[in-house]
Amino acid sequence: MMDYLKSKEYYTDLYDLITINKCIDILKFWQDLYSNKEKQKDLKEVPQKEIEKGFNYFSNFQLMDAKADRYKNKEQTINEWIERDKTKQDKLDNTPPPKGIYCLKC
Q1: Packing angle between helix 48-94 and helix 8-35, nearest 10 degrees?
Q2: Which residues contact 51 (CB under 8 A, 6 or more apart)?
Q3: What are the tens digits of pLDDT across the range 18-56?
Q4: How far is residue 97's CA from residue 1's CA, in Å, rounded to a whole number?
Q5: What does the angle CA 60 – CA 56 – CA 36 come to, to the nearest 5 degrees?
Q6: Residue 105 has pLDDT above 80, yes or no
Q7: Which domain holds residue 58?
Q8: Domain for residue 100, yes or no?
């Protein structure tokens, strides 16, 4: 039988995994942008140390913003997931089996 409702730790871990994947995507974006910096004409005159400093600053800023936003919504989102799955589980547990239906293989 399929169980819909899981432990609170399951939902917490799932939420954290989604947060980690979002942060990885942000880092990949900034790494790709940094690796293609030679193609950007605006950066030709900027010293390498300043370019690195800027990329580190903005990537860290975006990461911090994403983590703060995810943390702000964490408890509410996890509670919504639990309620959604609890409703499904209650429906599964409390629905009586149909009567008068016979399996052709039994």
Answers
A1: 150
A2: 34, 37, 43
A3: 999 999 999 999 999 988 888 888 888 889 899 899 999
A4: 13
A5: 120
A6: no
A7: 8-94
A8: no
